[in-house]
Write a structure and sequence with these properties.
single chain; about 260 residues; alpha/beta; Rossmann fold; 8-stranded mixed sheet; 9 helices; about 35% helix; globular; Esterase family protein
Length: about 260
């Protein structure tokens, strides 16, 4: 695969920002890895980082390139800071950047498909929240979404990281429904919205485990289908996420019916 470290100016953020990109490359002579590319616009996975990380972390901590190469999928890894993928009360408009500007800019730079059946999102921890939030708020954009050890109840941040919570969601404000995964799922069920395929996983000793089982049960109660996995004795750790991102990539519906481009 081609690995591109891309710096560009964001009109939404008003500053320069960074995104790491993996692009499919058809290869057969690389030792230990074979690349695949359809020669058309690439199916694309937006891969989101956690609270203490940045756009470089997936390449530094996992073998995501090796997992993605034989599948012919592009991977977009943006830098979203500690924003919880939100237009911050005191900060930058990272939700608008993620959901509007980033896809438009990346599709102008790289040969990425803009079709729903070719577009996916996944993330870990804060990024798991971001992935499900994006999929629930813009379900027509994605064919599938995955949350790895996701922060499903952001209200809990008010106790864990109160300063971040105030900067992101505001001082003393009730969490808006647009930022609440439980409320977004309930709204989708009430409106009978067609949702992307959902994949959720968490370790049983992760500090976010109870949030994840609560959201799993919430989806079940709403009649929203999802794939759920948990791993006994696993905490909030990269060895687990490395295993899981390989599973997620193989779970993605990458080989569905294709229309002519």
């Amino acid at each position: 695969m081609a690995f591109i470290q891309c710096d560009f100016y964001s009109e939404v953020l008003g500053v320069s920002t960074s995104v790491n990109v993996l692009l499919p490359e058809q290869t057969s002579t690389q030792i230990g890895m074979e690349g695949r590319s359809s020669g058309r616009k690439h199916p694309t996975l937006y891969l989101l980082h956690g609270l203490s990380d940045d756009h470089s972390i997936w390449m530094r901590r996992t073998a995501v390139e090796r997992y993605a190469a034989p599948l012919g999928v592009a991977v977009i890894m943006p830098n979203i800071g500690r924003s919880f993928y939100t237009d911050m009360a005191c900060g930058y408009n990272y939700w608008t950047f993620l959901s509007e500007e980033l896809p438009r800019v990346c599709q102008s730079f790289f040969p990425l498909s803009d079709r729903q059946e070719d577009t996916f999102v996944a993330g870990l921890s804060m990024g798991g929240y971001g992935a499900f939030k994006w999929a629930l708020r813009q379900p027509g954009r994605f064919a599938a979404a995955a949350s790895l050890s996701g922060a499903m109840r952001v209200q809990e941040m008010a106790e864990r990281v109160p300063h971040d919570y105030r900067l992101i969601f505001g001082e003393g404000k009730e969490l808006a429904a647009e930022n609440d995964l439980f409320a977004l799922a309930a709204k989708a069920a009430e409106e009978k919205t067609a949702l992307p395929r959902l994949y959720q996983c968490c370790g049983t000793t992760d500090f976010l485990y109870e949030e994840n089982t609560a959201f799993r049960d919430h989806l079940t109660s709403l009649g929203i289908p999802s794939h759920y996995e948990e791993e006994e004795g696993t905490a909030h750790e990269w060895a687990y996420w490395d295993r899981q991102i390989a599973k997620v990539l193989n779970w993605l519906p990458l080989h569905g019916p294709k229309d002519k481009e």
